[in-house]
Write a structure and sequence with these properties.
Layout: E1 15-16, E2 32-33, H1 41-48, H2 56-68, H3 72-92, E3 98-102, H4 112-119, E4 124-129, H5 132-136, E5 149-154, H6 160-164, H7 167-172, E6 180-183, H8 192-205, E7 211-217, H9 223-235, H10 245-249, E8 256-257, E9 263-264, E10 283-289
Parallel strand pairs: 3-4, 3-6, 4-5, 6-7
Antiparallel strand pairs: 1-2, 7-10, 8-10, 9-10
Length: 291
């Protein structure tokens, strides 16, 4: 995992000037407040993964959760690892060469494009996130192979029409050809009412042969652990929406499920050298194909 250290411009309470982004396709934007005085879900997750792109407010939440649930760090790692397996399978088995990753989060190597471009260097990836810190580190998401391409669009899952209209998307993805939409570790921060309509809009915008790859937190396997985590996150103003297997399967309504369906992420095509372990991870994952 690389060390993404924050510059002085990202010090707590400081505004982030994005004018240093000079690559083609970036436009100078006004300063934005990173709100580093309060926890952010992406930065708490980064802390749980052992990253450095987090602040005291984020670490405070993470430490409170870890104090009661030390296994959460392993859960976070497993939830990240399933993304690698999902996109590698989509590229190797299903031949997908285009990926739209919404809710990207803070870059953590290997990033999605590094996984799929190892299968085929011509793969193309668009990353989407609404956290300005992700934008600050987006150079790490733009290290494409010469044959392929990566791009970053600032956007929110709840407003898909806005980022779908971003020139970076049109310049990178051919929406006449299959695209894999990846929603990893994001839907559990949104209610059903808030998340299902935009996911449906996104899948409707993609052609037949496209895929949805998704992971979502659940309380099915360890209700007491989920209740503690929910309480600690809520104390920091972050709401978690745990979903049963049936509610996660609802995201795949109308799609052809890929083997093995919706299962705990440590049981979704585990690496041959890594057994799924004695305890389940409190996150479901699944992949479905648009026929």
């Amino acid at each position: 995992m690389p060390d993404f250290d924050l510059s002085d411009d990202c010090a707590p309470g400081a505004g982030l000037s994005e004018s240093w982004l000079t690559e083609p396709g970036f436009e100078e934007r006004p300063q934005v407040d990173l709100h580093t005085d309060r926890a952010h879900s992406a930065r708490v997750y980064d802390y749980l993964l052992g990253g450095k792109t987090n602040f005291p407010a984020d670490r405070e939440v993470g430490d409170r959760v870890l104090a009661e649930l030390p296994g959460v760090r392993a859960d976070a790692t497993a939830a990240r690892a399933v993304m690698h397996r999902m996109v590698r399978r989509l590229a190797e088995v299903h031949g997908v060469r285009q990926f739209l990753d919404v809710g990207t989060g803070i870059p953590t190597a290997p990033n999605l494009h590094e996984v799929v471009q190892a299968v085929d260097p011509a793969c193309r990836v668009v990353y989407v996130d609404n956290d300005p810190i992700v934008l600050a580190h987006s150079r790490a998401l733009l290290t494409s192979t010469p044959e392929g391409r990566t791009a970053y669009a600032q956007g929110d899952l709840r407003e898909p029409e806005r980022f779908l209209a971003d020139p970076a998307v049109a310049a990178t993805l051919d929406l006449r050809q299959p695209v894999a939409l990846t929603l990893i570790n994001i839907v559990h921060f949104l209610s059903d009412e808030a998340v299902h309509p935009p996911v449906r809009k996104l899948m409707d915008a993609l052609p037949d042969g496209s895929f949805l790859a998704l992971s979502a937190a659940t309380a099915d396997l360890a209700p007491e652990r989920a209740e503690i985590a929910s309480r600690r996150y809520a104390e920091a103003g972050i709401t978690l929406h745990f979903r049963s297997r049936e509610r996660v399967e609802r995201f795949f309504t109308g799609l052809e499920p890929d083997d093995p369906g919706v299962v705990p992420v440590n049981r979704w095509h585990p690496e041959p050298a890594g057994a799924s372990g004695g305890g389940e991870v409190g996150v479901y994952g699944g992949v479905g194909r648009k026929a």
